[in-house]
Every structure is written in structure tokens, then in C-alpha cells.
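Schema walk-through. Below, the input block comes first and the output block second. Nothing else is stored per chain. Lengths vary across the set, and this one has 76 residues.
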Amino acid sequence: ISESDLISAIEAKGIGTDASIPQHIKTIQDRRYIVLASEEPRSFKTTKLGRALAEGYLKIDKELIEPKVREYCRKV
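--- output ---
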């Protein structure tokens, strides 16, 4: 996924703010859920760990990976 598409998806789901989006991307890179696939244009690909984590959450409860869960947790 291109960096611009990733940012657009994050914004569309209402995750974070303009200022925090780069930190969200850095966090998922630091946790090795994604890696930089190319510099120009910048794009990312998921790692085996990232895919396994998402697949595991889907098996447990699909809503665990839905952005609305994070939104709910912030309100509580």
C-alpha cells in the first residue's frame, strides 16, 4: 500500500489526528507489523507477523480490529 493510501485510510477511519498519523505508522513499523517496501514512492507491505495478528483477531472477534473499537475505548 502506498503511504498516501495508508494515510487516506487512517483518516477515513477517523484514527488519530493529522499530527499523530506519522506516529501511528512508525508504531506499526516498530512493532514489525509492516515494513517499508519502497522509498520512491513510499509504500509498505504487511509482514507475516502483521498478517498473523490480524488473522488471529479475526478468528477471535472481527470487531477487535475495527477502528470503532479504538474509538469506543477512548470514550470510556
